[in-house]
Amino acid sequence: MLSWIAIQKNRPPALIYPPVPGQESSLRWAGKKFEEIPIAHIKASYNNTQIQVLSAAYVPLAHTSCGTEGFRNAKKGTGIAAQTAGIAAAAKAVLKGVTHVRVVVKGLGPGRWSAIKGLTMGGLEVISITDNTPTPHNGCRPRKARRL
Known about the structure:
- Helices cover about 20% and strands about 20% of the residues.
- It is of the alpha/beta class.
- Helix 2 (about 80-95) packs parallel to helix 3 (about 110-120).
């Protein structure tokens, strides 16, 4: 089943499935493979949101947080602060030549999606979003119940 667009433009259709191990994918972003695209790590806690852009070789390119953008106390844990930090991180990364980015999100804070939105507003194109939030498999025993 070829799509109508692929027939009109005389090119093979894009593959939906990932490549078989041992084969390379034909997808490229600005001439780079998926593994060569820089990664934006977003750590969204309830009190702050930290954003760090790393190259594919894990060399830091840009780092911002809501606190470094001038937000203080409870305002650091808001979506607007995370969006501002995302725009600032994207601006720093664009100056280093980054155009496309993979996003890895960790944490359950209010700045999760706002930070991703800020990265796109700052001029970066988001290729993939991965959730890396740690979840306990019922690890530690809770404290004893408080009796009043």
